[in-house]
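Weekly structure sync, notes
Attendees: PL (lead), two postdocs, one rotation student
Agenda item 3: pending single-chain targets
PL asked that the sequence for the first pending target be pasted directly into the notes so everyone works from the same version. It is reproduced below exactly as submitted, 65 residues in total.
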Amino acid sequence: MYVCLCRGITESDVREAGRGGCVMPCQLKAKFGLKQSGSCGRCAKNIHELVELAVQGASTSTVER
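Predicted structure, written out during the meeting:
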């Protein structure tokens, strides 16, 4: 599913970034180019929430092993 139509960012892109350690809002904005012209910025909150879920999921799966 697309999270950002302006930049063509998918949910899997966001989850991968979170699992890779890109979790701070400034890191996410830089990684996905959300500060560049042509980005409306409406997706920033959703992207941050998806990353938090991905990180929580990664932590949970590590603990369960």
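Discussion points:
- The domain at 2-64 is CATH 1.10.10.1100 (Arc Repressor Mutant, subunit A).
- The mean pLDDT is 84.
Action: rotation student to compare against the earlier draft before next sync.
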